[in-house]
Write a structure and sequence with these properties.
By secondary structure, this protein is of the alpha+beta class. Helices cover 57% and strands 13% of the residues. Strands 1-2-4-3 form a four-stranded antiparallel β-sheet, with helices on one face. The mean pLDDT is 90.
Length: 199
């Protein structure tokens, strides 16, 4: 069965085709083999975690490791960061356009609350504090699948790409919505303190 391409695998293949055409086949094979191994090692993860693992985390690790065969580590990190950032800018544009619908912005904190409740109900270890209601969604995440997995595979620095993507996606979505975060596990803090509120 052919595996579904993610935005990270597509962007990776584009990079190697453009920049390393002579080694593209070898690099694509190395990427595919590494991703298959990572997926096999994480086959027992929960359904919720699998979504993040398959869509972003594991393709990100495979791309980062494979790119280091042909470029310095820092450049490989910036290249993967570019992939994640491009997607975040696209989703920001789409969300902001959607929020032009009058009054829709008021529902955003509630949507975040619903999502957090569904995740934290299955994994109490994830959240320490959840505040919901009155147009405010605030949560302290004590564990993060992105941070845990990147650290486990020896690339904790990769997690910052995903932290940055949240800030790009959610900052300035609407004049009456405030996205606020002072800490993230991926940037070396003791928690991620997410907050989305109606101004």
């Amino acid at each position: 069965m052919k595996r579904k391409e993610t935005y990270l695998s597509r962007d990776f293949r584009e990079t190697v085709a453009l920049r390393f055409p002579a080694r593209a086949k070898e690099l694509n094979t190395a990427f595919d083999m590494r991703l298959s191994a990572l997926l096999a090692e994480n086959v027992g993860a929960s359904k919720e975690k699998q979504y993040h693992l398959k869509r972003q985390i594991l393709p990100g690790i495979a791309a980062y490791e494979t790119l280091q065969r042909v470029m310095p580590k820092e450049e490989a990190l910036q290249t993967v960061h570019g992939y994640v950032e491009r997607l975040a800018r696209t989703s920001h544009k789409q969300l902001a356009a959607l929020l032009h619908i009058p009054g829709l912005y008021r529902l955003v904190p509630g949507v975040f609350v619903k999502f957090t409740r569904s995740v934290s109900a299955r994994s109490r270890a994830l959240t320490q504090r959840l505040q919901a209601g009155n147009g405010v969604w605030r949560v302290d995440m004590m564990k993060c699948p992105y941070h845990d997995t990147c650290t486990e595979y020896g690339c904790p620095e990769l997690c910052r790409c995903f932290c940055d993507s949240d800030d790009i996606s959610y900052t300035g979505l609407h004049p009456k919505l405030i996205w606020h975060r002072t800490k993230t596990l991926g940037r070396g803090d003791d928690r991620c303190d997410f907050c989305m509120k109606v101004r």
